[in-house]
Automatic annotation (TrEMBL):
Name of this protein: Putative SGNH hydrolase-type esterase domain-containing protein
Keywords, in A-Z order: Hydrolase, Lipid degradation, Lipid metabolism, Signal
Keyword Oxidoreductase: no
Protein EC: 3.1.1.3
Leader sequence segment: 1-27
GO biological process: lipid catabolic process
GO molecular function: triacylglycerol lipase activity
The keyword Signal appears for this protein: yes
Length: 363
């Protein structure tokens, strides 16, 4: 191995250290970093630091299957999709941004994801009093970007970010806010106007990320959220809520068209889109093939379908989490998160378009 002359100033020495770290990461990982923007599906603890938020998971029985059975702020019995995707790439899980205040962000990535967050600024406040919206997460990413420029220099930061992965998981909470009882936004917008507003807002913020150097995006569509236990329990038969599912698919159609257009406008940008909706419907229809026996009821909760209340220390939880699709009234179990992460990383065009993450990393 050639030895680089790193003599000189402290700043030069620091840059050499970071360059060495990046070279080590490149030798063992498929990307130098993963930056996560999203909601509770990929939150690894940011909401622990939001004093007003009522969307928290830093208590039992959350984390019952996490290492040391520790609740961390993940809305899961164990790890979530962000954890599994990082492992596949060969990196540690990106830590919660709010846990790093005052510290230098790790060169391997940061998570800005927040339970209850939406594409639209008002969504988190409507649902859970406080959340980090997509716009605020992009602002936080800007801060990290500036620190990278300081650490690596402009060209080094650009090279780092152009090869890094951005996992972006949004949209579900915006629809929960729209279809909730007494919804303010439902009085202001028709569902189609709301779709258009979500997509146009998302596009502006993705363009901001592109301007900051992001080139490899993993974007997930909204799932069949009308089939979550909290939605099913409102039907006497326990079936899915048709209307919220319908508009979720309409939003996904608009999102896919937007991503295609954005790619054509943005030289060097590539993306992988995960059809979360299709993957969920496939799982419901073929659940036994995948080893699931309970597709409606939450593992942890209270009452009808275990969905009358969130998973708290007072709730009961199922002894076998691996045969349940849902952990609580909204979120999948660790095993479903792992299954979907497999699809995101190396799945076929049945659920990943135009390419999967493995192919995206090779571009």
């Amino acid at each position: 191995m050639a030895i680089t002359d790193c003599g000189g100033t402290r700043a030069t020495l620091l840059m050499c250290v970071f360059a060495f770290i990046i070279s080590v990461c490149k030798a063992h990982a498929a990307a130098p970093a993963v930056y996560v923007l999203g909601d509770s599906l990929v939150d690894v603890g940011n909401n622990n630091y939001l004093p007003l938020s009522i969307a928290k998971a830093n208590f039992p029985h959350n984390g019952v299957d996490f290492p040391n059975h520790k609740p961390t702020g993940r809305f899961s019995n164990g790890e979530n999709a962000a954890d599994f995707l990082a492992k596949k790439i060969g990196l540690p899980t990106s830590p919660a941004y709010l846990s790093l205040i005052g510290a230098t962000p790790p060169i391997t990535g940061v998570s800005f994801a927040s339970g209850g967050a939406g594409i639209l600024n008002e969504t988190g406040g409507f649902l859970f009093k406080q959340a980090i919206s997509l716009a605020q997460q992009v602002d936080y990413f800007t801060v990290v970007h500036d620190k990278l420029v300081h650490q690596l220099g402009p060209s080094g930061a650009q090279a780092h970010l152009s090869k890094s992965l951005l996992l972006i998981v949004f949209g579900s909470n915006d629809w929960f806010a729209y279809f909730r009882v007494g919804s303010i936004v439902a009085k202001q917008y028709t569902p189609q106007q709301y779709v258009d507003r979500m997509v146009s807002t998302f596009k502006v913020l993705l363009k901001t990320l592109y301007g900051l150097g992001a080139r490899k995006l993993v974007v997930t569509g909204v799932g069949a959220i009308g089939c979550c236990p909290i939605q099913r329990k409102e039907n006497r038969t326990g079936e899915c809520k048709v209307e919220i599912n319908y508009w979720s698919t309409k939003y996904n159609d608009g999102l896919k068209m937007m991503l295609q257009g954005l790619k054509s406008e943005s030289p060097g940008m590539n993306y992988a889109y995960f059809d979360t909706y299709g993957a969920m419907i496939n799982l419901f229809q073929n659940h036994e093939t995948y080893g699931y026996t309970e597709i409606k009821e939450a593992c942890c909760g209270v009452g009808n379908l275990n969905a009358d209340a969130p998973c708290t220390p007072l709730a009961i939880y199922c002894p076998n989490r691996k045969n349940h699709i849902f952990w609580d009234l909204y979120h999948p179990t660790e095993s479903v998160a792992s299954l979907f992460s497999d699809l995101i990383y190396s799945g076929s065009q049945q659920f990943m378009v135009p390419i999967n993450v493995e192919q995206l990393l090779a571009v």
